[in-house]
Amino acid sequence: MALSSSGITSAGTQPGNGLGQEEFMKLMLAQLQYQDPLKPMDNQQFVAQMAQFSALAQAQQSNESLQALLSVQARAQTIGLLNRNVDFLNEGQQVSGRVASIAFDSGVPQMDITLAASGGGTVRGVTLDRIVVVKN
To answer: Do both 98 and 115 map to the same domain?
Structure first.
């Protein structure tokens, strides 16, 4: 942390990184420590900063919950494709096949698809975002 000319410290965060709860508390304590005793921080400003941090924390929790929901939805959608015929992108080309099995690698569903053409070979590790058409 560095003391600015206004007496307020700034966290050394890189662009794209969020201000976490620990960093916010360090910033707030440094701000209180370096404030001018003859000009204490306005209570309204302090409360506004706390409210902003609370809103940020709630937004982060909502984002985490949304990510978990999307992960569950992706799993459910993928399981629904088991034994279904699909068209999917394989090396830039759209090909057809039947979803033979599903595995979860670190929570990410990956399908093994038996090709309809070319001798019925199997393409392994197809992710949901490569599915173009779901049939029958």
So the answer is: yes
